[in-house]
Design a protein that fits this description.
alpha+beta, 12 strands, BirA Bifunctional Protein, domain 2, 4-stranded mixed β-sheet, 7 helices, 8-stranded mixed β-sheet
Amino acid sequence: MVKHLSIIEMRGAPILEQLQLEEALLRSDSRNICLINQGSTPAIVMGVSTHKEDVVDLKKAARDNILLIKRFSGGGTVYIDEKTLFVTFIWQKEDIDLPPFPREIMKLSERIYAPLFGSLPFSLRENDYVIGEKKVGGNAQYFQKMRFLHHTSFLWEFDPLKMDYLLQPKKQPEYRQNRPHSDFLTSLFPHFSSIERFVDALKRSLSAFFSLQELSQEEAKKTLLLPHRKATQIIAF
């Protein structure tokens, strides 16, 4: 298992800035990273192979001037704002005692998060984190030769009306059963007194698996200046 894991904590960093930093850390660094960001300015984020017209109500999003971003990783489409909690892991393959396959990494992440939820019915369901039958976190991954990334968007709280920016996806997990967002999603906040408490509990859980050390934003952002592929991009309506 990983000997060291560097923790980067951010508050309110725009998701575009976060994704650009993640991509730089993935492609031009060798440290094992856990990046935590509490909230972002509003945006819709799509997977790298997604077509905007298939997943976004473009008229509504354009009307409200919602930023549309295509990230460098796969996965589904999410609406995010100041009430979203982001957690990203970036690891060297040689430091993880697991086969470098998506499902194995998902199972590891489930083991990390499960202690935070106590007796709540938290689990990994297909590619989502759920409480009971409702999604509370969505995941996306990226694998390269020596390094891989697993990032999660947790719903601390959500406004069902804002979810109307997203269309009912053509490809969806079986357990969703074509439910609208209002019946398919749930929030973390009824179960935790604050985001800070959730983050503290996460770090305690991580300390059972890894040796943790803090990494400042300033130090992490030095990787942005290194040459690397940059696939994260803003998409025009």
